[in-house]
């Protein structure tokens, strides 16, 4: 019996060996070598176009299926559930009063409550903030179960297609990508350690650049990322800071595969720590110890020192401090805008049709997220390099940060919000409620309140303790308030107070790595 | 990562909610998706914490009162039916509604019911009267620390004086309606839901 197995055994081994070698050679030729030299065969774009056609077909079939059953297809509220008034709360309450002139005695109207009430319920139905922390809902289906809300409309043909999709993604794409990822990271560690042995000089920095770019390009292929870079003439230069909107850790790979940056982040342990230490050997990055992160002045000093040295690479920072779901840009922490150097804004927009790149860090861990990314179809995104900006005369860090944020939001087609991304995990500060109350009191009692107003505010600060105290020096910035009310955006009716929070924020305690 | 919200809502449920509240099919599915995204515990019901997680609601001075309006007496959880029933108060009043089934009772979004909703925001102990104390408490919520006790007290007194017709030093629902008869309640207490 056993003698029959031996020839088959040998044959099997030979076949396995051949297919493995073949596979690896193909990998080398089509993916790694182009990555090394920075050229592309265009395979990924072809892949993207064909996938798009398949998705459209799938959506049409689902719609047909739904129509046959006489049911309606669930369409996400991409245009919003409700239409909100554009009048501010203050104006609305004033309208109720018969004249605009403040009465000698405070006039309270029982109908004032209607405005507060309606706005409260409007925010329950649709608010600007909570929807930024979950994945965007899509109109079309991209053959991933995780994004399908209409799966009871799927016909047999679609199910088969979906099955084939699963097979392709998990059996072919995932192992391929994992191999590439390991290759990329491994090469990065090895090469940067080797380069670290060289003496500092032109050779070292040029080699380090090439090594970094090459490894990041391999990683880009590991994610099957199809990136379109726009306006490359505005690419960040030495001695500047590059700021971008943050959607996922992949942002780093996307930007770093097109240019060399000095990374900023917390020192991690484990594999991440190994990579960080290796990278540090080849060129200067800025890694902070956990304890140093809280020290605002230390952070600012290290950043300014780095920026002052023109031989060092531009710093890459994500001022939002946390991952947002790529439909909006949230408040930029002012820390990086205080340094006083040129800021190079970059806008990153992911195409949601291929898979959602947003990392919901409160739900999924990093490894889980990476596996999820590698087992989806791919990542398609656009990167816009905006012209450099400098802080202008008479502009403080917060105003500058908001100006940069507005430019990025406009270019990327994202909503510009004044809310803090930290609201993902934390409760909103009481200060903003107090702002609302103060506004209403003013309307009620009239302008005469002003002379008492500031004392009352100060009094309220002391009694409310730490949250307000931290920012108390900025709370009185009257120009800041006036500026904010003029620079209102449509989403920010209540948010002018939140805008001032920019002045109250702590330094970006999370840089890239959450 | 993407909600299965619409699949958990059955067609029969949607029809019942449609009849009770007057929302359209697509509005109900979208509001269900919203309900589901607010429901962090994924147990099919919202608690007070789920509401307080909405920043715009948390900074609303009357936020707590509004949240309270969703929860029936003594309960800590509100399910989707309850959620829709409360939201129905804010549907705009359409003229053709008046001609519909007269036996089905007053629609939830009638002027009367909108006024009742607002009345209940003032009426803290649900005894169908707004006492001076209750009015003071609500005023205090709306103005914070910016107005002194005496001033607030006099505002409350004046308001009750103007509204109170039967001399019991508190405002009943009918007195409340009378005070607000000239106010365009239908417009102020309506939210424009998109189709």
Describe the overall structure:
The complex is a heterodimer of chains A (514) and B (195). By secondary structure, chain A is an alpha/beta fold. Chain A folds into four domains: 1-39; 89-123, no CATH class; 156-424, no CATH class; 446-512, no CATH class. Chain A is 52% helix and 8% strand. Chain A has a seven-stranded mixed β-sheet, sandwiched between helices. In chain A, helix 3 (89-96) runs antiparallel to helix 4 and helix 5 (156-196) crosses helix 8. Chain A is flat. The longest helix of chain B is centred in the C-terminal third of the chain and has 15 residues, at 149-163. Chain B is globular, with a radius of gyration of 19 Å. With 195 residues, chain B is mostly helical. Chain B has twelve helices and five strands. The relative contact order of chain B is 0.12. In chain B, 54% of the residues lie in helices and 5% in strands. Chain B has a two-stranded antiparallel ribbon. Chains A and B meet through strand 1, helix 4, helix 13 and helix 14 of A and helix 2, helix 4, helix 8, helix 9 and helix 10 of B. Strand 1 of chain A pairs antiparallel with strand 5 of chain B.
Key words describing this protein structure:
heterodimer; A: 514 residues; 4 domains; 7-stranded mixed β-sheet; 10 strands; B: mainly alpha; two-stranded antiparallel sheet; 12 helices; 5 strands; globular; disordered N terminus
Let me know the largest β-sheet of chain A. 7 strands, mixed
What is the typical, i.e. mean, pLDDT of chain B? 85
Structural class of chain A comes to alpha/beta
C-alpha geometry of chain A: flat
Low-confidence stretches of chain B: 1-6
Supply the number of structural domains of chain A: 4
Helix run count of chain B: 12
How helical, in percent, are the residues of chain A? 40-55%
- N-end to C-end Cα span of chain B: 25 Å
**SS summary, helix count of chain A:** 17
Strand order of the largest sheet of chain B: 1-2
Q: Sketch the topology of chain A as an H/E string, one letter per element.
A: HHEHHHHEEHEHEHHEEEHEHEHHHHH
Distance between the first and last residues' Cα of chain A: 60 Å
Helix/strand structural class of chain B: mainly alpha
> Nearest-angstrom radius of gyration of chain B?
19 Å
Into which percent range does the helicity of residues of chain B fall?
A: 40-55%
Return Rg of chain A in Å. 27 Å
Oligomeric state: heterodimer
Count of extended strands of chain A: 10
- Major β-sheet strand ordering of chain A: 2-9-8-3-6-4-5
Subcellular location (chain A): Membrane
Family (chain A): Belongs to the 1-acyl-sn-glycerol-3-phosphate acyltransferase family.
Pathway (chain A): Phospholipid metabolism; Lipid metabolism
Main location (chain A): membrane
């Amino acid at each position: 019996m056993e003698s029959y197995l031996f020839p088959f055994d040998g044959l099997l081994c030979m076949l396995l060996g051949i297919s493995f070698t073949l596979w690896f050679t193909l990998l080398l030729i089509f993916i790694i070598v182009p990555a090394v030299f920075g050229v592309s065969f265009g395979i990924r774009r072809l892949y993207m176009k064909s996938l798009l056609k398949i998705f459209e077909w799938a959506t049409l079939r689902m719609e047909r299926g739904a129509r046959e059953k006489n049911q309606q297809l669930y369409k996400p509220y991409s245009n919003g559930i409700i239409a909100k008034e554009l009048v501010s709360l203050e104006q609305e309450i004033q309208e109720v009063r018969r004249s605009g002139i403040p009465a000698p005695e405070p006039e309270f109207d029982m109908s004032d409550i209607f405005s507060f009430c309606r706005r409260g319920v409007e925010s329950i139905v649709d608010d600007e903030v909570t929807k930024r922390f979950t994945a965007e809902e899509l109109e079309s289906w991209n053959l991933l179960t995780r994004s399908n809300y209409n799966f009871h409309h799927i016909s047999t043909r679609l199910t088969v297609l979906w099955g084939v999709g699963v097979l392709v993604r998990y059996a072919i794409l995932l192992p391929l990508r994992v191999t590439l990822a390991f290759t990329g990271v491994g090469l990065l560690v090895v090469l940067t350690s080797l380069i670290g042995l060289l003496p500092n000089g032109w050779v070292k920095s040029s080699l380090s650049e090439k090594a970094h770019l090459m490894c990041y390009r391999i990683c880009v292929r590991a994610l099957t990322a199809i990136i379109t870079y726009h306006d490359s003439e505005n690419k960040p230069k030495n001695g500047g800071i590059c700021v971008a909107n943050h959607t996922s850790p992949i942002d780093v790979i996307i930007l770093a595969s097109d240019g060399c940056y000095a990374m900023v982040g917390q020192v991690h342990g484990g594999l991440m720590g190994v990579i960080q230490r290796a990278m540090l050997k080849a060129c200067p990055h800025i890694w902070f110890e956990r304890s140093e992160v809280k020290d605002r002045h230390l952070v600012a000093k290290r950043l300014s020192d780095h920026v002052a040295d023109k031989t060092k690479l531009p710093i890459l920072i994500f001022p939002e401090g946390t991952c947002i779901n790529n439909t909006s840009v949230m408040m930029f922490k002012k820390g990086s805008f205080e340094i006083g150097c040129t800021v190079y804004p970059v806008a990153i927009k992911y195409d949601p049709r291929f898979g959602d790149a947003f990392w919901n860090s409160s739900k999924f861990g990093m490894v889980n997220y990476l596996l999820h990314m590698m087992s989806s179809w791919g990542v398609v995104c656009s990167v816009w390099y905006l012209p450099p900006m400098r802080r202008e005369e008479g502009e403080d860090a917060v105003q500058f940060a908001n100006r940069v944020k507005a430019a990025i939001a406009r270019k990327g087609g994202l909503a510009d919000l004044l809310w803090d991304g930290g609201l993902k995990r934390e409760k909103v500060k009481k200060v903003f409620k107090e702002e609302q109350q103060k506004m209403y009191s003013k309307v009620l009692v009239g302008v005469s309140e002003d002379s008492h107003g500031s004392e009352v505010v100060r009094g309220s600060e002391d009694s409310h303790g730490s949250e307000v105290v931290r920012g108390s020096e900025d709370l009185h910035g009257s120009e800041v308030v006036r500026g904010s009310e003029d620079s209102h955006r449509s989403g920010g009716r209540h948010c002018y107070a939140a805008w001032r929070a920019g002045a109250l924020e702590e330094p970006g305690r999370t840089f890239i790595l959450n | 990562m993407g909600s299965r919200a619409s699949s958990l809502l059955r067609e029969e449920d949607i029809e019942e909610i449609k009849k009770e509240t007057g929302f359209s099919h697509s509005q109900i599915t979208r509001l269900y998706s919203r309900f589901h995204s607010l429901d962090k515990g994924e147990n099919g019901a919202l608690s007070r914490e789920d509401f307080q997680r909405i920043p715009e609601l948390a900074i609303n001075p009357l936020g707590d009162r509004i949240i309270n309006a969703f929860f029936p007496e003594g309960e800590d959880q509100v399910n989707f039916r309850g959620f829709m029933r409360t939201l129905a108060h804010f549907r705009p009043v359409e003229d053709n509604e008046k001609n519909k089934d007269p036996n089905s009772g007053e629609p939830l979004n009638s002027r009367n019911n909108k006024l009742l909703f607002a009345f209940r925001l003032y009426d803290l102990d649900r005894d169908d009267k707004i006492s001076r104390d209750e009015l003071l408490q609500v005023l205090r919520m709306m103005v914070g620390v910016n107005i002194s006790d005496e001033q607030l007290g006099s505002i409350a007194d004046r308001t009750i004086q103007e509204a109170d017709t039967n001399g019991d030093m508190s405002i009943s629902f009918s007195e409340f309606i009378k005070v607000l008869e000239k106010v365009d309640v239908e417009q102020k207490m309506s939210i424009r839901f998109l189709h």
